[in-house]
Amino acid sequence: MNPKIELEQYCIDAQSAVDIAYFAGVEFNDIKNQLIIDLGAGTGRLSIACAYLQASYILSVDIDMNALRILKTNINGLGLETIILPICSDINHFEIVRQLLPKELHITTIENPPFGVQKKTADRIFLQKAFSFSDVVYSIHLANQKVHQFLTSFIKKFNWGIDYVFPFQLKLDRTYEFHKQKTKSVDVNIYRFKRKEIRK
Ligand SMILES: C[S@@+](CC[C@H](N)C(=O)[O-])C[C@H]1O[C@@H](n2cnc3c(N)ncnc32)[C@H](O)[C@@H]1O
Q: In the sheet where 57-62 sits, what is the strand order?
């Protein structure tokens, strides 16, 4: 793949993809028999991990056709092409209309979004989109106080709350020329966001 820095394309390491899916699927039971949306799916490691935890279907959305071609090769090789459905779209234009879906359908979004380093608002768009159709959202963000404070106030506007924060270390392989080390550990938090109940 020819990664595009403007899209903040970093491929999650396989172990982390499995750990995060395990956290969502086994600790919280948010994957088995659910519809999973992988926003910014890239080459599909998170999608594939969810498929092995018995998701019903996974929609893997990415703007970059080259990344999705690799995803397609990966899922074909693993025989997962009837479960993982790649969708090439800018998430700004991707919509799921809840009213058209069965009421009992539970939607879990899992995302490793751009951290907003290249384009300040990139992570916000991912969250806003996920909140528009999901029941629960797992999202990876840099672990620091400023980001945490920002997220806490940003999500309030959408009537969502932080349900759980799982401190985690991603292992980033050298992807771009400006990366000096072969691999680098990055401290992140995996957030589990939930829509706030409306009190009657
Ligand atoms: C940090 S990478 C994560 C890739 C993959 N989920 C993983 O964990 O290996 C972010 C992904 O978001 C995609 N992306 C960035 N902006 C996007 C947009 N506006 N719409 C859809 N996908 C986007 C990039 O192409 C990239 O694949």
A: 84-88, 57-62, 35-39, 107-111, 136-142, 183-195, 160-173
Indicate which CATH number applies to the domain containing 179: 3.40.50.150
Residue 178 tokens, joined: 């400006």
In a domain, 3, yes or no: no
16 touches ligand 1 (CB under 6 Å): no
Task: Measure 198 CA to ligand 1 centroid, in angstroms.
Answer: 32
12, part of any domain: no
Q: Is 45 in the pocket of ligand 1 (CB under 6 A)?
A: yes
8 within ligand 1 shell (Cβ under 6 A) = yes
* Percent share of the chain, pLDDT over 70: 94
Q: What is the pTM of this model?
A: 0.93
Taking the CB of residue 180, how many other CB atoms lie within 10 A of it? 7
Domain that holds residue 62: 27-195
Phi, psi of 102 (to 5 degrees): -60, 140
